[in-house]
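Bit of a strange request maybe. I'm writing a small parser for structure token strings and I need a real example to test against, not something I typed by hand. Could someone generate the tokens for this chain?
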Amino acid sequence: MSSYVIREIKPEDNEQVKDLIRSVLVEMGVPKVGTAYEDAALEDMHAEYDAPKMAYFVVEAEGKIIGGAGIAPLANFEGAICELQKMYFLPEVRGKGVGAQMMTTCLEFAKEQGFQKCYIETLPYMKQAQKLYLRSGFEALEKPLGDTGHYNCTVWLIKDL
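Reply from user aminoacidic:
Good idea to test on real output. This should exercise your parser:
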């Protein structure tokens, strides 16, 4: 990946981001119910993340959105824990270090917002994503935190910030 930029989402990115997330989920064989596929937030990601302590970052190359990830307070949970949300990349950029750079961007934002820990939910067969999370210092949890509504995501991880 020769030239790309990581930046916050803009309103004009909404359609590309929704299409990217849904295409990756379909590629991975993810159930459409109980996962990010059915999230109402996908209709207007810019508006969804335009709130205090929240941000959604995209990776753009030559005018095309090729990946993204967000940080938000963990839903239905009291405390200084955020959630890394909707981190997806097109196949052509996976394994090229873009995910690690996005992870750094997201975790730095989370620290700046005063979060003490970062939580992630994923699916058991998303092995490449799990490798990135573990390399980034996340550790497995026995049960979920909060209630994100993603009941098909059965792998839970957390990291001290």
